[in-house]
User: Fold these one by one.
Assistant:
Number 1:
Amino acid sequence: MNSTEVYVLFGPPGVGKGTQGELIEKKFNCSRISTGDIFRENIRNQTELGIEAKSYIDKGELVPDSVTLGMVENAIVEVAKNNSIIILDGFPRNVNQAEVLDDICEKYHYVLKCVIALNADDNVIIQRLSDRLTCKKCGTTFHKIYNKPSKEGVCDKCGGELYQRSDDTPHAIANRLDTYRSTTEPVLNYYQHSGKLAEIDASASPEDISKTVFKLFSS
Ligand code: AMP
């Protein structure tokens, strides 16, 4: 059997990692692990992990590695049982997490194929996040102006209720961007000489971005 291949979707909050991840999942029949989604599910179910993570997420800070790393390793191992391609959305988010991802790949004989780094200016990101609506049930995102749901407040995909995430508020958005620039962006240096880094301008429309992203998967 071939080794499981791991792709990383990297970039600031609101740059479109989730949207691109969903499009890739559909087109290439692979499985996406979103650390943000796992945390939100734990918060909904009021698990111990969810309660601990919530205080950090609401402030726009990263959840500590002591909570995140074990959770991610378990999720990757579980998904790898039935999938030969895994997309990581939102992990790694600091250099230590990038190192641990290398360790996980070595330990389980997975291959880190590509780090797809999306980027856009802060003003584009702030606009996308401030008017973003998220489905409570399936996590699909909409935008109040550019990607309205057919029926106000209702998810087109599953009929779930749309809400504004507690970390999509101006104060939390500012913190998330600060955290990204100070702690997450340096991960790009970590991959700079690996030959695995593909940097993509993500200020275009999701459809245009996906054309470039899909090429990376097809090649
Ligand atoms: P996201 O849905 O990817 O925007 O993530 C929402 C929030 O979950 C982030 O702002 C962090 O507080 C937390 N989070 C997600 N992924 C990680 C990670 N890899 N490490 C630490 N915190 C994370």
Note: The mean pLDDT is 94.
Number 2:
Amino acid sequence: MSGKTFYITTAIDYVNGKPHIGHVYEKIASDVIARHFKQRGDDVYFLTGSDEHGIKIQKTAQKNNMTPKEFCDSNVVDFQALAQDLNLDYNKYIRTTDEYHERAVQKIFQKLLEKGDIYKASYTGLYCSGCECFLAQKDLTEDGLCPDHMAKPQEVKEENYFFRLSKYKQQIIDHINANPDFILPSYRKNEILNQLENIQDISVSRPKTSVSWGIEVPGDKDQVIYVWIDALSNYITALGYESEDDSLFKKYWPANCQMIGKDILKFHSIYWIGLLLALGVELPGTIFAHGWITIDEKKMSKSLGNVISHKSILEQYHLDSPDALRYFLMTTTSFGRDGNYSDEDFKSKVNADLANNTGNLLNRSLSMLIKYFDGEIKQEFVNDDAKELVEAALNAKKKVVENFDSYMITEAIEEVISLVNLTNKYVNETAPWSLAKDENTLIDCAKVLYNVAEVMYHVAVLMYPVIPDISQKILSQLGEEKNIADIKLDDLKWGMIQPKKIIDKASLTPVFLRIDSELAGDKKK
Ligand code: MSP
């Protein structure tokens, strides 16, 4: 262990619909980061969960003739199933209807009331239930609609509790300016600094006459706590903040990385930070706002009927592991920017990178090892003569680590794919099949195959956070019996392959089968 802790959180999903590829994108990215930091030896805690209060859930439950709690209980199951479906290795799933969370949120509210940072005032505003927030006139379209939901916000005149956000405005601005990694990608920073210019106190409760589904304001039976205050608090209540046992909070907070979508950056880099400052709680290291996934270049929406789930993709292509989808989503765009999913891109990307470049390289080199050397690596094959290749493998590890330092997942993967491409070139140039034809050069053929095996070991370990199943298969075919999750990056160096018989013919199966478009087409019909 490195002795360091690493706490990563995702946004908690509204459970008023089914999980789609957008929810999935963020959870996969966070899982990839969590796995990478475990490889570094950090003590990682990975949190995800669901956001279950508010008017949006209340209304949808009503439409379904269910109580909000019944509705959440039935819908949350699909969100929790993502763990299994996508191989997410998180430590905890928090639901904002969990009792311990509700109690802690009330205590947080009470603390701020006592401090004078929450006060009561009357308010008139325009509320968008899709965003679960008040919008200013200037935020609306010409027709007076919320630009994200194309719906008319409701005019409300209420007596509410307010949080003195304006008191913390300067501290937030100073923090953003002093910490270049606080908002990542850095190109999103200015948008937040601009919004901070006009920041005012925010309403943090709703009267029960408008919304009944929420956590009651302590000491006021007529009001519920605003859903965003409730939801944002999950990041610390999940660790036991304001509970009898806050040992996890003491151990893991502050979060190293809070992963969210770009649409909710304001809530995280302004409201959340204001709350933490008011509570006297340390601030998180990085708020990372990823981009949005579109489908065939169009925003996903129920009205367009183009909402895609991970389930439909996995079924369509008969995939029993989520690795191909994980890989595609992590490479479809530079992580942080908006990305796109299309069937065509998915097929061509995973076929090219996973089946052809990586899978075939392993398969053809191990086939030769079996054919010429009975699948055995002997001591005399071990070498580090191919300097360029050895250096490229070591360099790939260094670059992967550097990229993950700022959560640049896509660039990290590209480093590994470059190593794969270089190795393919190396095999083509050294032509081990020709070297095998002559007794005098047979040893050179063996050395080449050893070198390729060594690179593939590196590839498997470096790619493990993204494609855990495939990586494990690669490692097994290289004769490594260890669980790949247990291999630490510090231990990864040239010379991982132990001289022994590493594979026999029966065990040589492709680690990733090409996605067959015909098959997928049949299934679609
Ligand atoms: N409940 C709030 C978050 C509260 S966090 C304290 C919420 N929920 S959500 O279900 O609407 O979205 C959950 C996450 O999924 C958000 O980070 C959001 O940005 C992300 N995505 C939702 N649709 C998306 C895409 N189409 N593409 C990528 N991510 C998107 O917001």
Note: The CA atoms of residues 115 and 507 lie 66 Å apart.
Number 3:
Amino acid sequence: MPQRKPSHPSPAAALSVAEKASLTSGAGDFVTQESAAAAAPAVMLSDGPHGLRLPKESGDGGQLDLHSAAPATCFPPAVALGSSWNPELAEQVAGAIAAEAAAYGVGVVLGPGINIKRSPLCGRNFEYFSEDPLVSSELGGAMVRGLQDAGVGAALKHYAANNQETDRMRVSADVDERPLREIYLRAFERVVRRDRPWSVMASYNGVNGVPVSENARLLTAVLRGEWGFDGIVMSDWGAVRDRVAALRAGLDLQMPGTGGRTDLEVAAAVESGALDEAVLDLAVERLVRFARRATNPVHSPGAIDVAGHHGLAGRAADQCVVLLKNESALLPLDPSGGSVAVIGELARTPRFQGAGSSQVTPTRLDVPLDSLRELATGADVRFAAGYALPGAEAESTDADTQLFNEAVRLAADSETVVLFLGLPAQDESEGFDRDHIDLPAVQTELLGRVLAVNPRVVVVLSNGGVVRTAPWQGRVPALVEGWLLGQAGGGALARVLFGAVNPSGKLAETVPLRLEDSPSHPSFPGEEGRSRYGEGIFVGYRGYDARRCEVAFPFGHGLSYTTFGYDGLHVEEADGVFRVGLTVTNTGSRGGREIVQIYSGGPTDSRVLRPVRELRGFISLFLELGESRDVVVEVARHDLAYFSEREDGWKVEGGRYRIEAGASSRDIRAAVEVAVEGDPSKIRLTGRNTLAEWLEHPVGGPLLSEWFAKARAEAPQEGQGALADPVMRRFLAGVPLDVICEFPQSPVPPASLGALADAVEARMAEDRERRS
Ligand code: BGC
């Protein structure tokens, strides 16, 4: 049903049913339908999210032609940008993407993608920020602001619970309400409420058996009704199966266009009365508003700032590199002397983005090997490929042996080795998941051979999804996670290795010891069309922590060439906001950026399962050597809530919570406790509530105790033993009151239960009255 009738003359009024229907599907692969009568211009759309992918009109493969896009700056993909934990940076990057969009006449960029990394196997993890909803929403929201403040719309995607590529167009994500709200919808909720994206993209998959594109609950009740979304919902490309059902559910725009075929279905449904015309009118009203917004006059067709944006892509990549390990300060290397063996084809043929719809045709490309040579002022940088990437010519055993031997000789002859390892492009892409998280065997074998001749090895990883480091990380003194860093990533890696940039990224996802440790592992990617989210809310670090599982590198981890001290953690509360304050000091040897993470744990006596800790806020700050700064991170009281399925809403439990400041989720530097007042219970007590639930209830508890006391006074010999005996008290705690009432000795007879429940309601009403 439509939510409301338009209260002012609707643009739909000027249009026929057929014209209206035509507006609700694309005019082509990446353009919406225009309507002169409704003053709605056509809107040009482009992928996203880390740069534009604007297929050239002559690209013969159309939407599926990933290689014919017009050149655009390839900024660090979300996997890297997420590791910067720097929303300001993400906003700046998005502003530059918006400038390129405007130059190309694009009104809406299809991104950012803020899905949660539920499993390390997801083929599209490189397009997503984190396993944590707060990091995802802070970075994703910043991108929405960066685009929209520059007059270009965002399409927040892929809504919702699109966490795997296996069977992505049909699979049902079977997820309970609590994890759905707390983990999978949470980032969408924050971004929609705060950053107001102009559009949201409905994902291919279903949720609990209902395709998202036909899911009225997700598209209308939750997105618009609860969160106040006022933009349009567009389908992912090809996600609509039943166009009329989709419109009815709240999906405004089917993409790509179907050449008018499904418009006829819509028009016919209106004519036959199967579809209320008001539903169509409402979609048209939203689409017209969207079209006017997205064809903003700030657009200035022209050239893109290639050099400026390449520079920004490099500065962004600088903050995305994560230094995982650095024993005996092997890094940074000295650019002015010594010999460095750069080994690995990936140093010469870098991977800098993933495959699929987000694939950008870069304007330039920094090659790590070249950048290392450029930065070396006196160091002798020599190269050996070591291995061939799949698809390249040399794949015979002889050729492999020769590459190995050359590399090992070079390693033996050099003071230090920088070994580039990583996933081949074929391993990760939109459209399929990985089935393991290992590096290619040829690379780990090469690593072993190199270590045998020279232990001073720095491994640099290039990968969009996490890889297993555990089998070899103990033997490698330094390890740099270089992710996929975009077109200027080669320069950033060289700057970090030679110390021109102090690394400051931190992991936005856990690196497990083994794939099997990952919380979703037993149920990923599901079977027979259903993916059961069996781990519930225990996703990512929430799951590793709950099982006290050792990990290779924890969520939030990342080293620097300097060190930071944390002091004076304290919390003040005012107006429902906790102000978490502390002093951070650069205690090391050079300037650097730290990301301070604030977690909460508890409350101590929670009635529901709670993660050991959950990220509630973070701050990124640069400190000069010796500099101290007082920082404050605000945590809203309602962010401590869990989603109560029973009460069908968010609920803050009263009790003592731990507030922690950490340099990672497993490097907690200080903690304090705060007392939090809980939300009043919305549960209406009945006989089906247990004795414990009655006794815990702020009104029901005292009232029931009064009844018990009265009954005892009237018949002191009856039922005395039961509640006095501690074992029986515990036994009875879990028994519903209506069962207890049936016991012959019960102080409350069954007939009085209704009166008791009514008395509770009456007292609560009085309390409410008194407070208001
Ligand atoms: C992807 C979207 C993308 C769209 C348009 C789909 O296959 O899932 O992320 O925006 O294609 O290229």
Note: The radius of gyration is 29 Å.
